[in-house]
Amino acid sequence: MPLSLPARLRAILEAEFPRFSETEMVHRRAAVEALLAEAGLDHLVYCGANRTGSAVQWLTQWPVTAEAVGVFSPGRRDALFIQYFNHLPLARRLAEAAVEWGGESSIQAAIGELARRGARPGRVGVIGPMLFTQHAALSARFGEIRDLNRAYTRLRTIKSAEEIDWIRIGAALSDRAMTALGEGLRPGLNERELGDLVERAYAPEGGTNVIHYFGVTPMHDPQLAVPAQFASTRRVQKGDIVLAEIAAAFWDHPGQVLRSFAVGEQPPPLYRELHAAADAAFDAIAAVLRDGAMPSAVVAAARVIEDAGFTTIDDLLHGYGGGYLPPILGSSSRPAGPLPNEPFKAGMTVVIQPNVATRDGKAGVQTGELVLIKADGIERLHAVPRGLQRV
């Protein structure tokens, strides 16, 4: 069954290759030019490899495959050097840049392009996951290379209206996957087969896997409180709890949804108490989130977890979309580092995910989802029902 989407989102999903508008791309370039000007720089090298490095796609609309190194100079067309040679035809079709094969070394090709553009020592910045050898080659030619990753990350925390539309599609794909898991989950399936249920739900619509993590343990003798990052061959049994964290993406724009399922019987009192605390924490966090809210208010709202006698293992809240973004907040009993002192802003997309667990780390539940921060509160980006479900 096709995804149920508004007409404007269905048009994006069904495009041969979906594209952001010229207005959107001009806005992005202007934002990067402002970063360069603020840092006193003339040129930017941006890079990615093996489908990581979001700046490449954000600036050119080319999703990174094996490797990509781009050169950005205000007022000039970007140069993009990629690996492998057989990726050139599609990259030239999709990328808003002059695309060339990187040859033996994409960074050396970028260095040559910077030289042709008259780059001066101390006036080059970098965004993306650059290898030590790449940085060494770049700095040997152009001196100190300024790291703009922190500034770029801050830029990506606020989403444009077009980005939010693409994220809505990623959220719908993630919902489809979680729904398929709930409908297909039964005793006898192993964790790998759970992954098959999930991926088959969104692959026909062009969705791609970001994560599908599962945790499976007996509810009456629990030994696991959070999903695992790799699937085992353990088979689901009656009386198990299945914890799931799923993120499916539409062209690098994911949703993220977390749920828990009791298999074959009603959850015992411990799991009902854990999930009640998780639901209370989600609702309390959602009630304080809005433009101008402080991270400290989120942590304070989640104190219902500790008041119930529990703790957390995973992060309580994090930014999402274009990376795992700030703010990254832990609970008062399991901090995620120093508490940020910057307010939430309208246009941020964040995952509220109170993974409530027993203090011995043996039992826990998953609930949560991606939401959009607005001036007066939040908007849910997911439609899959909340709550601890029996299947």
Write a concise synopsis of the structure shown.
With 391 residues, this protein is of the alpha+beta class.
At CATH level 2, the architecture of the largest domain is Alpha-Beta Complex
Number of domains: 2
Give the % helix: 25-40%
**According to CATH, what is the topology of the largest domain?**
Creatine Amidinohydrolase
Number of strands: 17
Separation of the first and last Cα atoms: 22 Å
* Fraction of residues in β-strands: 15-25%
Low-confidence stretches: none
Overall 3D shape: globular
Provide mean pLDDT, rounded. 97
Largest sheet: number of strands, sense, barrel closure: 9 strands, mixed
Kindly provide the name of the CATH class of the largest domain: Alpha Beta
Rg (CA only): 22 Å
What's the total helix number?
Answer: 12
Question: What's the helix-strand series?
Answer: HHEHEEHEHEHEHHHEEEHHHEEEEEEEE
Helix/strand-derived class? alpha+beta
CATH homologous superfamily assignment of the largest domain: Creatinase/methionine aminopeptidase superfamily
